[in-house]
UniProtKB/TrEMBL annotation:
Name of the protein this chain belongs to: Aspartate aminotransferase
EC number(s) recorded for this UniProt protein: 2.6.1.1
MF annotations from Gene Ontology: L-aspartate:2-oxoglutarate aminotransferase activity; pyridoxal phosphate binding
Gene3D superfamilies according to UniProt: Aspartate Aminotransferase, domain 1 (3.90.1150.10), Type I PLP-dependent aspartate aminotransferase-like (Major domain) (3.40.640.10)
Transmembrane segment boundaries: none
Other remarks on this protein: In eukaryotes there are cytoplasmic, mitochondrial and chloroplastic isozymes.
Length: 402
């Protein structure tokens, strides 16, 4: 007997559950295109060379202890993270209007930001795009906010539903929070153009909508850290306020180290000081203080211009490999004469392609071809290589011609 005997079995996480199923499949031809983690051309996880070097330096430094970090994390890491996303010459940083706290990767940054808003902001509704990363609605609801949606993706064009987005944000109550993917929208791979971003910015500022940016892929979309940060910087340049959740999981390959940051750009330096004091009250009872190793690695790389440059080269190589897989997959479907317009595969950017395959086709491909992806038809391009790509193209062809 157990006091927990009445507990129901919970379903697997829709994204992480794909890997659970994949691991159970004995087939030698199986392919995991579920979770968004980078793989090399050989299908192996990658630790960046510059990360290995930084870790070696840290290990060899006898002056390093394992003391607790402050509640807000490693101060140098926080400064460098704000500079990375907002730009070294950001006026908001120079005017001391930015408060940054180290958090548990992107997820933890979103959660801390959400709880701060639930406690201190007058409007508790957060608008999230349809579709979005599956964890978003859960994070914000548990943080105490009410999640509502705005139109984002148009299945007919496999592109942005810009008019729908504008309509929905126009009718949102004044002051509502709006979650924006900074670049490489997950799961669709569809981003607004710079022109559209500018219109979104004007609309949001005119209605005092509060931007909450989620930046999980800086550098991964285009291969350039600055280019991928451009939309965010447009919003900072107008002097307005915003929240920013940053993750180093993908762009530095630090997934399991859980290293990220929450920044809040405030209207003035004295507001920033008070906001920081309240962020500490959110964090302290949640996990007391964040981990030490990950941010030490990041700070080691970001503070040193040579290591920084090496990072950008390795980052671009990852982005370029993904972009080349897009072209290869597109070409492979074309050469098979697979019915349909597949140009969205090369138009979409970032880690994922939103294939447009329906859940039945996804199930068919798992059953018959041992290819694993989320049921919404999202595939992680990072899991593809020259060896498994023909198998995927065969599977897609079979699924759509069946
Ligand atoms: N936001 C988005 C859009 C993501 O895709 C991810 C990673 N899948 C995250 C946030 C957060 O990931 P992590 O907590 O590992 O940094």
């Amino acid at each position: 007997a157990s006091v927990f005997a009445g507990i129901a079995q919970a379903p697997e996480d829709p994204i992480l559950g794909v890997t659970v199923a994949f691991n159970k499949d004995p087939s030698p031809v199986k392919v995991n295109l579920g979770v968004g983690a980078y793989r090399t051309e050989e299908g192996k996880p990658l630790v960046l060379n510059v990360v290995r070097c930084a870790e070696q330096m840290l290990i060899n430094d006898p002056s390093r202890y394992k003391e607790y970090l402050p509640i807000t994390g490693l101060a140098e890491f926080n400064k460098l993270s704000a500079k990375l996303i907002f730009g070294a010459d950001s006026p908001a940083i120079q005017e001391n209007r930015v408060v940054t706290v180290q958090c548990l990767s992107g997820t933890g940054s979103l959660r801390v930001g959400g709880e701060f808003l639930a406690k201190h902001y007058h409007e508790h509704t957060i608008y999230i795009p349809t579709p979005t990363w599956g964890n978003h609605p859960k994070i914000f609801t548990l943080a105490g906010l009410t999640a509502r949606t705005y139109r984002y993706y148009d299945p007919a064009t496999r592109g942005l539903d810009f008019n729908g987005l504008v309509e929905d944000l126009s009718s949102a109550p004044l002051g509502s929070i709006v979650l924006l993917h900074a670049c490489a929208h997950n799961p669709t791979g569809v981003d607004p153009t710079v022109d559209q971003w500018e219109k979104i910015r004007q609309l949001m500022r005119s209605k005092s909508l509060l931007p909450f940016f989620d930046s999980a892929y800086q550098g991964f979309a285009s291969g350039s850290l600055d280019k991928d940060a451009q939309p965010v910087r447009m919003f900072v340049a107008d002097g307005g306020e915003l929240l920013m959740a940053q993750s180093y999981a993908k762009n530095m390959g630090l997934y399991g180290e859980r290293v990220g940051a929450l920044s809040i750009v405030c209207g003035s330096a004295d507001v920033a000081v008070r906001v920081e004091s309240q962020l500490k009250l959110v964090i302290r009872p949640m996990y007391s203080s964040p981990p030490l190793h990950g941010p030490s690695v990041v700070a080691t790389i970001l503070r040193d211009s040579e290591m920084f440059n090496e990072w950008t080269v390795e980052l671009k190589a990852m982005a370029d490999r993904i972009i080349s897989m897009r072209q290869q997959l597109f070409d492979a479907l074309k050469s098979r004469g697979t019915p349909g317009d597949w140009s969205h595969i090369i138009k979409q950017i970032g880690m994922f392609t939103f294939t447009g395959l329906n859940s039945e086709q996804v199930a068919f491909m798992r059953q018959e071809y041992h290819i694993y992806m989320t049921s919404d038809g999202r595939i992680s391009m990072a899991g593809l290589n020259m060896k498994n790509l023909p198998h995927l193209a065969d599977a897609i062809h079979a699924a759509v011609t069946k």
